[in-house]
Amino acid sequence: MKPIHVGICGVGTVGGGTATVLKRNCEEIARRAGRPIVVRAAASRDLARARAALGEGVELLDDALAIARHPDIDIVVELIGGTTVAKDVVLAAIENGKHVVTANKKLIAEYGNEIFAKAQAKGVMVAFEAAVAGGIPVIKALREGLTANTIEWVAGIINGTSNFILTEMRDKGAAFADVLKEAQRLGYAEADPTFDIEGHDAAHKLTIMSAIAFGIPVQFDKAYLEGISKLDAADIKYAQELGYRIKLLGVTRRRPHGIELRVAPTLIPAKRLIANVDGVMNAVLVKGDAVGATMYYGPGAGAEPTASSVIADLVDITRLHTADPEHRVPHLAFQPSAMADLPILPIDEVETCYYLRLNAQDQPGVLADVTRLLADGGISVDAMLQKEVTDDGRADIIIITHLAVEKNVNAALAKIEALDSINGKVVKLRLEHLNG
Amino acid sequence: MKPIHVGICGVGTVGGGTATVLKRNCEEIARRAGRPIVVRAAASRDLARARAALGEGVELLDDALAIARHPDIDIVVELIGGTTVAKDVVLAAIENGKHVVTANKKLIAEYGNEIFAKAQAKGVMVAFEAAVAGGIPVIKALREGLTANTIEWVAGIINGTSNFILTEMRDKGAAFADVLKEAQRLGYAEADPTFDIEGHDAAHKLTIMSAIAFGIPVQFDKAYLEGISKLDAADIKYAQELGYRIKLLGVTRRRPHGIELRVAPTLIPAKRLIANVDGVMNAVLVKGDAVGATMYYGPGAGAEPTASSVIADLVDITRLHTADPEHRVPHLAFQPSAMADLPILPIDEVETCYYLRLNAQDQPGVLADVTRLLADGGISVDAMLQKEVTDDGRADIIIITHLAVEKNVNAALAKIEALDSINGKVVKLRLEHLNG
Lengths: 436, 436
Fold this sequence. Notes:
Rossmann fold, 17 strands, EC 1.1.1.3 (chains A, B), eleven-stranded mixed β-sheet
């Protein structure tokens, strides 16, 4: 049968990995897809490097838009990254009636609505499994595997760099800055790590999963982000004493009046399987009303893991591009005409449990004052841990709350911080029980 | 849009759960599928019970074959179980041009080849996500999510009853028989538990995953089965001392000359995530050459988790039944014309690591004799643990081997058991490192 011709835009790590895996497993992939899938052309700014990565027999161009318009290309694979050239290439490919596969989480999280509308109008598919959690087929699980369910929440460890740093901080009791240097040396963190450690990358992925889980448009601009750069090693230790681990967790949860969408360092009970996902690995836990909790675990980055997802999309398209466009799996899991208009809730409206760390003068009545202010705010205490008094006459007090609304917690904390007996700011972290 | 009409054959736990979830989530499911999915008719031997489960408005019949021939039914859901009536119903439904969804692992593992050939000829789909690992969409992951990969192995904890029993034996140090009684009292084990505890159920599921992973026909008759009923609590304790947990593990692995396909109580390093899957939960770990190791975790049984998978299949069929049959996702992941003829290897040819427990007289030279016999058989020792001598002058010796071929191990064990200094049979368990 006639091969499917792929054009790769951007021959970096993932582009090279995709070509390598397509070549190495060409027979196995053709047995599954029903026809061979071959790289016909590629565009790169560095043609010598691209030639080395792709070998002979692949047409090389220096203009990605030429791939999008290439008459012999069936599917365009966009691996350029960013939202400028990449967006132009994706829209041009769709305009030219080509299916698109992309690993670009930023592009989908920020411009997905526009891209999918255009693809729907043109009757082509845009697939993006590689954009979320690298090699883990979690988009497929959410979009197709769990269609019976009303999804209640999705929680994910979806940034390997941050998870590596947090794992090392816990295991070695080390400070954030030291571990970051180590991660950079090992190649697990970029020279400028902001995008990973401040939660942008995780929020892009979470935004996409939120849309697919709840049938809402992608809305990255409404996501709440908090990174791990200010996380204190002391809190990791205290959390552990109380039976929790701290992870950079993306949480999106259905509430009666809207959807929570937030990324922040979060406590999870140590006994949960997802709390034991360490190092650069990723995992996504999904709670559906029928199935309960299911979890998807694997490598969240890397050349061949990401290529695995890119190629799964290529095989999906190869298998199903003859299907009537109205009957294909919808881009965002729900039919475009059936999108819900549930708003993303502001962080003030979020309801969760909290970990609070106060530094207090060792004097009578402090605890009474603090617990009264919490009670006045409707916040009830689940556990409390008072640490030994230090030489300066101060002591750390750690409080774990039951469910509370964020704005109430913030209001109570403002009053607590105003007490003479409390030193400095209260550390506030969110805590998720993630009960199945 | 016109609803898809479903006919349910067998209104037991899963049938009732399927109807309940289809009704409760009808709006969410229609938003995803593009049209409503409704139960139009059902067949049951107990019409009063079926009426109670399904409510009014569903046509009830006492003959499942009448559902397979019903002119208004688009998809037949077979939940009868077994391989007699169930097989007739599935074949009759296909004959009548209807798509089929089944949760029947025994039927697919034993008669899948015949059923899929007939479905292919008739241009209909037969879907069976619910047959493996209950609510976990692992068939979809293997068949569609990991298509880029040459699958190296699949290892699964895929029988909740056995996993519950093993978890309790470990946590409470209890004997198999006592925990089985407890499991029966809690409803986690059947009155006749043979099918679960002797590995048949796990082997059915593993047979199906093996076919999909490697592109071979289903061959349940070639699977090797060993149950947990003879497992000694002492071995669970010794394994733990050595850093391992014992699980009833299904393993299917590609070797140069064939495929390993085996279910047996197996040691796994305690630090692996899958070793921490406890109670009735299921998990499947898949090693692909591109992605590395990914894991899928969730409830392996129960009314609504299983219904979740049945309905996911209904939505898949609803979305894609307009696709040209040649281009749909193949039943066993690979195109029927591209099946491999790799044989299933006999257990003698399996290569893995081993845990051996010997009961020896406390006399000089025993260890030397044992290790010499192992070395003569080409079996090298990874770790050894000698327990204290008991009052009768005997001691347990535990040996963990590196990779060895089963027939070589058996030959060496026969010689070891023939030594005067060794009491009784040597306990032999397999051990899998499951390295990503």
